[in-house]
Specification:
This protein has 299 residues and is α+β, with helices and mostly antiparallel strands. Helix content is 26%, strand content 32%. The chain has a seven-stranded mixed sheet. Strands 9-8-10-7-11 form a five-stranded mixed sheet. A hairpin with a 5-residue loop joins strand 14 and strand 15. The two termini are 35 Å apart. The structure holds adenosine-5'-triphosphate and magnesium ion (MG). Magnesium ion binds next to loops.
């Protein structure tokens, strides 16, 4: 049974937008796997942490049922299924543990381009097609709007042209699909990205420790994802002009160079270190600028 397992099991998408980045993130936490023949189950080699490769829609349910301990899934899917459980009078069974910084998109309300959009009151009495009925209904209730929710499992964007609905509520990233269907986004219901989902309840001791270990590594991996170590030298008197150019850096380590007014600095930058920034620093008096990748970090 789920309670007697001494290995941690993580559900990720088998194929699709989140599949590769999810695996890559877990691999960057030092996990590796031996794949089974059917490629549905990957046995953890470096740690007792296994993967189950599934449809993304199945991930919240697998956590709720205790078949998996953790999962990587879009906030949109997690939120929808959480809303569905609430509407059914059931207890929350899973929750977002960490935002993972990939798979960004938003759940948006879109209307025909021909509409002169004045505000949400225009939706009263209208039919809205969506695959996210719980999130849409909850949002409509918050707005105090009574509208008909038309549930479609796919191709939501063509519903207005087919006369099935007046507006839609769907995932948007670039907006290209919307404009190809003469629709325009007018409201954002949810900002989404891939998240690490876990149970609402506590783990037992063994899996709790494994989960904590994984979270510590994950937090390190997420922190350094865009981080770079910046090394340079500069005269001490120029520091007040240089430090404001490093607003995203942790307090730099400053080393005094022997017998001179020169300092050697080392700063961990969490934002992008572009050529432009390096040129700005050079202009402000930095010398010997060097940018190094950060491979690992443990706070
Ligand atoms: P599965 O076969 O696993 O059910 P799917 O077709 O439901 O796959 P994908 O299209 O791979 O799922 O999308 C997975 C997740 O990627 C979405 O739930 C969402 O969180 C995120 N995502 C990011 N950008 C977009 C986008 N433009 N359209 C749809 N989903 C997006
Ligand atoms: Mg799916």
């Amino acid at each position: 049974s789920a309670t007697s397992r001494d290995r941690l099991r993580i559900a990720i998408q088998k194929s699709g937008r989140l599949a590769e980045p999810a695996r890559a993130l877990l691999a960057s936490c030092g996990l590796s796997w031996r794949e089974s023949r059917d490629r549905l189950f990957c046995y953890g080699e470096t740690l007792p942490i296994d993967l189950l490769l599934v449809r993304d829609d199945d991930i919240p349910g697998l956590i709720a049922d205790g078949v998996c301990d953790l999962g990587i899934v879009g906030r949109n899917v997690l939120g929808e299924q959480d809303g569905e459980r609430r509407n059914g009078g059931r207890e929350p069974a899973f929750r977002e543990w960490r935002a993972l910084g990939f798979g960004a998109c938003r759940l948006a309300l879109a209307v025909p381009e021909s509409w002169d959009w004045q505000g949400v009151s225009q939706l009263a009495g209208k039919r809205i097609a969506t695959s996210y009925p719980a999130l849409l209904s909850q949002w409509l209730a918050e707005q105090g709007i009574a509208a008909d929710v038309v549930l479609l499992s796919g191709s939501v964007e063509i519903a207005p042209r087919l006369g099935q609905a007046d507006a839609i509520c769907d995932l948007v990233s670039s907006g290209a699909t919307l404009s190809a269907n003469q629709l325009k986004p007018v409201e954002t219901l949810l900002q989404s990205e891939a998240v690490l989902a876990g149970p609402a309840a506590e783990f037992d001791a063994v899996r709790g420790e494994l989960a904590q270990l994984l979270l510590r590594r994950l937090d390190g991996a997420l922190r350094i994802r865009h981080s770079k170590l910046l090394l340079f030298q500069a005269p001490r008197r120029l520091l007040p002009a240089l430090l404001p150019l490093l607003p995203d850096a942790e307090v730099p380590t400053v080393m005094q160079l022997d017998g001179e007014d020169d300092l050697a600095l080392q700063a961990l930058c969490h934002g992008a270190v572009t050529w432009q920034r390096l040129e700005d620093l050079k202009r402000a008096g930095a010398r010997g600028l060097m940018v190094l990748p950060v491979e690992g970090m443990l706070a």
